[in-house]
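Notebook entry, structure prediction.
Reason for the run: the old model in the group folder had no record of what sequence produced it. Starting over properly, with the input documented here first.
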Amino acid sequence: MAYKEKEIEKLYFSIGEVAEMFNVAPSLIRFWESEFDLIKPKKNRKGNRQFTKEDIDNVRTIYHLVKEKGFTLQGAKDMLRNDTQAVKDKMEMLDSLKRVRSFLLEMRDKLH
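New structure, fully documented this time:
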């Protein structure tokens, strides 16, 4: 009898993996780390950065503000200083609406 093994969830990601997720250079992630207190990856004994899912969510927030919304670094810092959670909540809402839109377009295409 076959059984499905529980998938092991990865706890830490390298800077290269994080950069690849956002299609940016690792140097940009390092730069944002120096500019934003929000990004604080742990470092292992070798000094390599180890990003958690929370760190990646924080990078996603900064990416959204700077790359998608066109904020300057100072503008993004100001937004985050005022209310980080509100920015994250708005991003989640936008992601949710994008998924609903995608679903509706898919349904429309199936009906035609």
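Summary: The chain is about 65% helix and 5% strand.
The old model has been moved to the deprecated folder.
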